[in-house]
């Protein structure tokens, strides 16, 4: 048994992160089959689109953030845990106006350590939210939210409908993360 020294805080690498991000690696031993990092995102900051050969578990400890795949958006709040399966393309980071800290736990796929994620190119860095539903464990109303693709934005636009004689009329609504 060995006691590990406290981790040194490092700035997130510019080719992996957009915005101000700091990382404390909790488990980063060459013999470990997994890594664990405490990652702090300033408001609006996030990582690039990436995937993990052995999957990734994210557990929010503070603030409000998002985990985004091609088809889904999940709101992170303290106590929420999200699993991204092996090779699922995703990004995660803070909400546009809130900071967020999460534990990122990744298995090491295959022989050797290597990178736990892979950068998928500049065209995928815009942080677009997919069309589909937004899931938030606390707010039932967000399950009806529809995100709108707008290049260069990370805001969620929602709409609800009200019944009018013979048709549904869209009513704009703001999602409060």
Task: Describe the structure in your own words.
With 177 residues, the chain is an all-beta fold. The chain has one domain (9-174): Sandwich (Jelly Rolls), CATH 2.60.120. 0% of the residues lie in helices and 42% in strands. It has no helices and 14 strands. It has strands at residues 9-11, 17-18, 21-27, 34-41, 46-47, 56-63, 65-69, 73-76, 81-84, 90-94, 100-107, 134-135, 157-164, 167-174. The strands form four sheets. Strands 1-3-4-11-6-9 form a six-stranded antiparallel β-sheet, with no helix packed on it. The model is unreliable at 111-127 and 139-177 (pLDDT under 50).
Q: Which structural class should the secondary elements be placed in?
A: mainly beta
The CATH topology is given as Jelly Rolls
Q: Which spans of ≥5 residues are poorly predicted at pLDDT below 50?
A: 111-127, 139-177
Order of helices and strands: EEEEEEEEEEEEEE
CATH domain class: Mainly Beta
Distance between the termini: 42 Å
Helical content band? under 10%
Neighbour order of strands in the largest sheet? 1-3-4-11-6-9
Strand element count:
14
